[in-house]
Amino acid sequence: MDVILLERISKLGQMGEVVKVRDGFARNFLLPQGKALRANAANKARFESERATLEARNLERKSEAQKVAESLEGKSFIVVRAAGETGQLYGSVAARDIAEILAGEGFNIARNQVDLNNPIKEIGLHKVTLHLHSEVEIEVELNVARSAEEAERQAKGESLTSADAIYGVDEDALRPEDFFDPDADGLDEDA
């Protein structure tokens, strides 16, 4: 199906372009969301008459997104979750959770603006991309830890999942010779 784009859509085209898309994509996403119109003579004339207002609205949305991006620049958010000793979370941190955390900090971000291919399933520092506008995206840091104290230690660069942090053992001091006798053949000589 041919459609006229009413806004810039990444990997598809710019505002005003007539592009060919799959019927389902047009019917289920582009048309209901108001991102495109069916490409026919009447809609082409309608787009040309409304082009100035559409461009002004797009520019306004972009400037608002840039303001939010500037306020998010360099921010780190702490996420406290229960986790095992190896750092594996009991559950995960999904896009919905990230949107709620940002809302708690005063940022109005929808969960579909959070670019998270897979949920976060372990403690640590994680970079997450936010798509605030089709032309504005920003990366924020999530500090996933078991407690606020661990988050502070983790932010300083300390690893909470290493053997030293878990067991109080220096990993470099661990050698196989300390645990196994390389000369032993594994047979009991008295038998």
Summarize the helices and strands and which ones pair or pack.
Blueprint: E1 2-5, E2 18-20, H1 23-30, E3 36-38, H2 41-72, E4 76-80, E5 88-93, H3 95-104, E6 114-115, E7 120-122, E8 124-133, E9 136-145, H4 148-155, H5 163-167
Parallel strand pairs: 4-9
Antiparallel strand pairs: 1-2, 1-3, 5-7, 6-8, 8-9
Pfam family, one: Ribosomal_L9_C
Region (Disordered): 172-191
Protein name: Large ribosomal subunit protein bL9
What does this entry look like structurally?
The protein is an alpha+beta fold. The chain folds into two domains: 2-64, 3-Layer(aba) Sandwich (Ribosomal Protein L9, domain 1), CATH 3.40.5; 74-171, Ribosomal Protein L9, domain 2 (Roll). The protein is 33% helix and 24% strand. The protein is built from five helices and nine strands. It has helices spanning 23-30, 41-72, 95-104, 148-155, 163-167; strands at 2-5, 18-20, 36-38, 76-80, 88-93, 114-115, 120-122, 124-133, 136-145. A four-stranded mixed sheet has the order 4-9-8-6. It has a three-stranded antiparallel sheet with strand order 2-1-3, covered by helices on one side. The termini are far apart. The model has no long low-confidence stretch (mean pLDDT 84).
